[in-house]
Each structure stands twice: as structure tokens, then as C-alpha cells.
Design a protein that fits this description.
Elements: E1 3-11, E2 16-26, E3 29-40, H1 42-56, E4 64-68, H2 71-78, H3 81-87, H4 96-106, E5 111-115, H5 123-137, H6 145-151
Parallel strand pairs: 1-4, 4-5
Antiparallel strand pairs: 1-2, 2-3
Length: 157
């Protein structure tokens, strides 16, 4: 049996306050997760959702299917770009901190990635979008340290 993971990310402005939403499903069990950050980007939140979802799983024994509307995340992984970026030390690539965090998880799981069209009535994607948007809009106080470090403190106040 697969563990199905549905993810979405959101930012209100790019950069701006952002959030992620996750629905985890295994058989009849379901769990929702979300979190928000005061300053981040949409792509970071899309990738953060995948990372947080994998980090929340208590087992690596079952295959995991990640469903995401992010071409950035899906293509970077399924087309192997992230592995090439890693070999080159992520030179000139954004979000290296999150990609390295993802790669540490990648080897532990049997993963499959499925792209879903966003804002197209897919129930789990719509739920993740709502969770991510609410997390971004509810005056998040979380600090996306990797992003704020990249800014070097500019644009924070």
C-alpha cells in the first residue's frame, strides 16, 4: 500500500508571507499539516511542503506517492536536474538549502511523483491550497532562515 502525500505551497507576494499545506493519506487514515513563514517564495513553499511531509512520516517501509501542482518541484526531481545541481554544488541555483534537505530524505524513501493541475477541482490539491493560503495569510511568524540568509537581511523591515 502506498502512502499518498498531497502538497501545495503559497506566498502572498513573491517574496512575501508564505505557507505550505499537506494532506497525508494511508488507507483510511488521513492527516493534515500546514505552516507559515513571514517572508519566503512560492517555490520554496512548494518544496518545503514535500520536505515537511517526508519528515513527518514515521516509516520508510511503504512506497510514497507525492502529488503536487508544482512543475518546479516535480520536474527538478523527475528529470534529474536536482542531482546535477548537487554535483555542481548548487552553483547559481536558488533554494540550495531546501534541495539539500530534500536530498537527505530522498535516499530513504521509495518515491514516485505525480503532477496534478492546480486550481482544477482536484479535492486534495484544493484542500492543500486552502491550508497553504491560510498559513500565509494568518500573519505567520515562522522564519524561513535559508531565504532570509540569501537576502542578507535586506527587505526584512
Amino acid at each position: 500500500m502506498n502512502i499518498d502525500v498531497y502538497t501545495d505551497g503559497s506566498s502572498r507576494g513573491n517574496p512575501g508571507p508564505g505557507g505550505y499545506g499537506i494532506v497525508l493519506r494511508y488507507r483510511e487514515k488521513e492527516k493534515e499539516l500546514s505552516g507559515g513563514f513571514r517572508l519566503t517564495t512560492n517555490n520554496r513553499m512548494e518544496l518545503m511542503a514535500v520536505i515537511v511531509a517526508l519528515e513527518s512520516l514515521k516509516t520508510t517501509e511503504h512506497p510514497v506517492v507525492i502529488h503536487s501542482d508544482s512543475k518546479y518541484v516535480i520536474d527538478s526531481i523527475t528529470k534529474g536536474w536536482v542531482f546535477g545541481w548537487h554535483k555542481k554544488g548548487f552553483k547559481g541555483k536558488k533554494n540550495a538549502d531546501l534541495w539539500m534537505r530534500y536530498l537527505m530524505l530522498h535516499a530513504k524513501f521509495k518515491l514516485t511523483f505525480t503532477w496534478v493541475r492546480g486550481h482544477n477541482g482536484h479535492p486534495e490539491n484544493e484542500r492543500c491550497d486552502l491550508l497553504a493560503t491560510q498559513a500565509a495569510l494568518n500573519q505567520p511568524t515562522g522564519i524561513d532562515q535559508g531565504f532570509e540568509n540569501e537576502l542578507g537581511g535586506e527587505g526584512l523591515f
